[in-house]
């Protein structure tokens, strides 16, 4: 009878039987008083076989199925039901001798079955459960910490919980209820007792926390670069809120011991200590914040210096993470795709380069990140034709308050310009004289580059050193200074600002290289003095002879060998202007013995007043333009041939002069090749100043001729190379000729020629009988 009871006792299932203290007590009495060792072993094995079958075929599959079917909101109740079943089995097994070992054996059996059955879908649902619990918990804690939370704006009283792509809108009260009924701390005590806390909670928790941290960081400080967030807000949030959540998961030991005041003592059950969790969470914070700022780095550089606080935060995070290489690669790609293309003007590229240098030096004082990121950027600037002109223009643009003009006003760096042999000396200086502050280069640094001087150079030195010497910049400055001095002269403005710029540039380039520019400025001051003297002499002669004063002439006398060359062309001038220039030259020859003036009409300007039907327009134009419009005072219409003959200029220059006045509505072509003056001009404006670059000339034809000559020279070099190959190798296919040219073009840019142009070039040689083709082989024609 006792054996029948015991057989029924070990065969019962937890799913259809309520645990009974009476049954447990009776089984304990039978085991202790009646059953022998062999029978006891048999009933134990029978119990484990029955329990294994029940767990494997019924209980565990039902648990997994219910989780999959009912989803996140059923996790807490399902875990609680499973714990109730397992507890029933444990109470049954507590009747056996050595019950602790028997229950431990059952726990191993249970874990082996359930861990085998739990698939990725179940783990993903638990991850979603943890994610929803974290969001609800942290938002509730955030709002409950506000003393005036009851007076929050209406939209701030709700939170959108994201789970599996779905969004659930909960109020603060609903969040509180959700935490109490479905929060992770509710299921935590059961999962801990079942031994599933590590598999179903701790493993996905890091991934979920990373996602939630990124969501919080983006919401809190994404695209906000003007204050430091890490120490003042984010770390405090992790230590107070997130660590509190971790404590609720892993710090609640049982229902009777579910709270403690000492967080560090509450971690047990072989899980990580408080300090370990804090260290891991802070690393996730640093890594997540760094990845967000890396994605925003282009905008951060654009907003510099306002974004300096964000860069300082990022600098601290990079020291704690291994993301420097990712930052370098990401920023290089961003700059390449968003800046280094033809759609961006050179001026904008230079502005971005300056901001990048400043921002990256703040981020990495060693200069290594700047060196690597901007290497391709610098090469792209060098390849642009107008880079030097834009740099010098920004450098001297005092009115626009540009970065380069402000940089020019600063004392230059101690590193000389265009130095290429200073790397070792600077390295030795840092090691020997500043050994306390010396730090090795980051591992991303190129060990083959011994020259480290440019890492510490100021921005102007960096830009100049891109070209290896200052020669191009000095030449461009001379051209720019010429234009600015001519403009100032014609406008009657003094050159004090240019004198200041010259003195600052002397500090950069040296006195010797700036000698020509100094002479140019001296010419301006000397011209002003000579003009004053000659004007006084002319006025005296007019009073003495009681004659009319000639046209007012203000002449800038330049030393031709010190000024950049200008387009020189001559034209017939109005008699009044011509007489004034002849008279001025005579006075100058009297004042400066054995010297005479040669007039450069392309650089001259004439002040004219044009009387229209309803207004008078004052204009400052070149002599050819003034001569052209003045001819229409003599007669109403002129033909093209008559104008060319009268002005003594070419037809191409005449067309450009006529186009200037046609654009302003003052000349019209009444018949092919015949032009007339228009008095009734609408919206003509009040004044116009023609820039020195607007003066029509034959310059375009000269440029085209120069380009054609350059192309012919290049083709001659390439032909000599191809001719030499064909002499040595007899015949070559097109692909090999092209490959050989590309190989030599890496060292000699003049050897560059694209495929289509090379084919056309070789076809031209074939037509001329110099080359012939045998199948696919090119060879010299031996005729």
Based on CA atoms alone, the radius of gyration comes out at 44 Å
Poorly predicted regions are 146-156, 252-271, 418-427, 697-704
Strands in their spatial order, largest beta sheet: 3-4-8
Proportion of β residues?
A: 5-15%
How widely separated are the two ends? Answer: 125 Å
The chain-level structural class is mainly alpha
Helical percent range?
Answer: 55-70%
Shape label:
elongated
Query: How many helix segments?
Result: 32
The beta-strand count equals 11
Biggest sheet features? 3 strands, mixed
Mean pLDDT over the full residue set = 77
Keywords:
single chain, 783 residues, mainly alpha, 3-stranded antiparallel β-sheet, 32 helices, 11 strands, 6% strand, elongated
Structure overview:
The chain is mainly alpha-helical. It is built from 32 helices and eleven strands. Strands 3-4-8 form a three-stranded mixed β-sheet. Strands 5-7-6 form a three-stranded antiparallel β-sheet. Strand 1 and strand 2 (166-171) form a beta hairpin. Helix 4 (75-93) packs parallel to helix 8, helix 9 (197-221) packs across helix 12 (274-295) and helix 25 crosses helix 26. The longest helix is centred in the first third of the chain and has 34 residues, at 37-70. The protein is elongated and about 150 Å long. The N and C termini lie far apart (125 Å). The model is unreliable at 146-156, 252-271, 418-427 and 697-704 (pLDDT under 50).
């Amino acid at each position: 009878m006792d054996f029948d009871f015991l057989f029924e006792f070990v065969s019962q299932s937890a799913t259809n039987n309520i645990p009974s203290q009476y049954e447990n007590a009776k089984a304990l009495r039978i085991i202790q008083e009646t059953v022998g060792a062999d029978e006891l072993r048999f009933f134990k094995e029978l119990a484990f076989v029955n329990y294994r079958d029940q767990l494997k075929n019924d209980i565990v599959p039902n648990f997994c199925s219910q989780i999959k079917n009912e989803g996140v909101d059923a996790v807490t109740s399902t875990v609680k039901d499973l714990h109730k079943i397992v507890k029933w089995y444990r109470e049954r097994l507590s009747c056996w001798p050595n019950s602790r070992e028997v229950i431990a054996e059952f726990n191993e059996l249970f874990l082996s079955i359930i861990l085998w059955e739990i698939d990725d879908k179940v783990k993903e649902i638990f991850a979603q459960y943890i994610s929803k619990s974290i969001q609800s918990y942290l938002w509730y804690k955030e709002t409950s910490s506000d003393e005036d939370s009851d007076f929050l704006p209406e939209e701030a009283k709700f939170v959108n919980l994201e789970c599996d792509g779905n969004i659930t809108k909960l109020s603060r009260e609903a969040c509180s209820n959700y935490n109490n009924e479905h929060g992770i701390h509710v299921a935590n005590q059961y999962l801990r007792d079942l031994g599933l806390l590590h598999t179903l909670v701790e493993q996905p928790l890091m991934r979920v926390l990373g996602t939630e941290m990124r969501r919080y960081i983006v919401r809190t400080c994404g695209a906000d670069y003007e204050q430091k967030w890490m120490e003042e807000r984010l770390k405090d949030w992790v230590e107070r809120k997130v660590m509190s959540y971790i404590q609720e998961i892993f710090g609640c030991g049982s229902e009777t011991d579910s709270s403690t005041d000492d967080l560090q003592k509450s971690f047990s059950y072989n899980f990580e200590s408080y300090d370990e969790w804090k260290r891991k969470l802070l690393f996730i914070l640093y890594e997540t914040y760094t990845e967000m700022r890396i994605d925003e780095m282009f905008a951060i550089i654009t907003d510099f210096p306002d974004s300096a606080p964000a860069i300082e935060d990022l600098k601290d995070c990079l020291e704690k993470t291994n993301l420097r290489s990712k930052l370098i690669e990401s920023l290089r790609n961003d700059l390449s795709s968003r800046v280094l293309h033809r759609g961006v003007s050179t001026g904008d590229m230079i502005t971005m380069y300056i901001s990048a240098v400043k921002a990256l030096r703040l981020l990495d004082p060693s200069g290594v990140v700047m060196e690597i990121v901007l290497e391709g950027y610098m090469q792209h600037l060098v390849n642009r034709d107008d880079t030097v002109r834009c740099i010098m223009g920004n450098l001297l643009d005092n009115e626009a308050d540009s970065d380069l003009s402000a940089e020019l006003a600063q004392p230059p760096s101690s590193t000389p310009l265009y130095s290429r042999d200073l790397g070792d000396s600077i390295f030795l200086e840092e090691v020997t004289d500043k050994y306390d502050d010396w730090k090795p280069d980051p591992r991303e640094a190129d060990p083959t580059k011994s020259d480290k001087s440019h890492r510490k150079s100021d921005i102007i030195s960096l830009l100049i050193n891109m070209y290896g010497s200052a020669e191009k910049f000095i030449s461009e400055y001379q051209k720019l200074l010429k234009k600015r001095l001519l403009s100032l002269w014609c406008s009657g403005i003094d050159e004090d600002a240019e004198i200041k710029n010259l003195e600052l540039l002397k500090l950069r380039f040296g006195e010797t290289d700036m000698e020509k520019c100094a002479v140019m400025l001296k010419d301006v001051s000397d011209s002003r003095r000579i003009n004053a003297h000659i004007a006084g002499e002319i006025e005296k002669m007019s009073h003495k002879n009681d004659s009319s004063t000639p046209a007012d002439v203000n002449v800038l006398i330049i030393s031709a060998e010190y000024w950049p060359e200008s387009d020189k062309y001559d034209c017939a001038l109005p008699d009044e202007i011509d007489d004034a220039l002849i008279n001025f030259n005579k006075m100058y020859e009297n004042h400066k013995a054995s010297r005479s003036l040669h007039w450069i009409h392309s650089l001259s300007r004439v002040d004219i007043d044009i009387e229209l039907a309803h207004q008078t327009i004052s204009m400052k134009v070149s002599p050819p333009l003034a001569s052209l419009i003045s001819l229409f005072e003599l007669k109403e219409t002129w033909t093209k041939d008559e104008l060319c003959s009268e002005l003594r200029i070419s037809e191409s220059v005449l067309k450009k002069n006529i186009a200037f006045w046609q654009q302003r509505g003052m000349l019209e072509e009444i018949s092919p090749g015949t032009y007339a003056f228009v008095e009734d001009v609408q919206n003509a404006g009040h004044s116009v100043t023609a820039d020195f670059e607007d003066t029509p000339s034959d310059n375009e034809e000269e440029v085209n001729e120069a380009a054609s000559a350059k192309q012919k020279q290049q083709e001659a070099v390439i032909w000599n190379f191809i001719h030499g190959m064909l002499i040595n190798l007899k015949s070559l296919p097109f692909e090999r000729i092209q490959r050989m040219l590309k190989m030599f073009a890496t060292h000699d840019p003049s050897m560059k020629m694209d495929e289509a142009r090379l084919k056309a070039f070789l076809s031209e040689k074939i037509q001329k009988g110099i080359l012939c083709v045998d199948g696919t082989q090119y060879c010299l024609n031996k005729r």
